[in-house]
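User: structure tokens for this one?
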Amino acid sequence: MSAFWNYRVIECPSEEGTLFQVHVVEYNINGKAVNWSETAEGSFGTTLEGLSQDLERQKQALDKPVLTVKRLARGYELIEVESGELASSPVPEALQEQN
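Assistant:
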């Protein structure tokens, strides 16, 4: 079960070359990545201001470590490209107070 989400850049290697795409990544209450969108996210909003806010949230993904999908014997996991560590995110303060 996911507790929160954010946008993250995922490196997607292919035969044609590497692509960098913005995806939604979901985290558990401890900040460990547990799920992510299969395809890149588009921007949306019901108003121009809403669209602008969504674009800003996506832009914040550029300030976080780039991730890549690692295939396991059974399943997949997200890891940080530079460190090789499992993908994670700080738990928002509002959720920390609930624990």
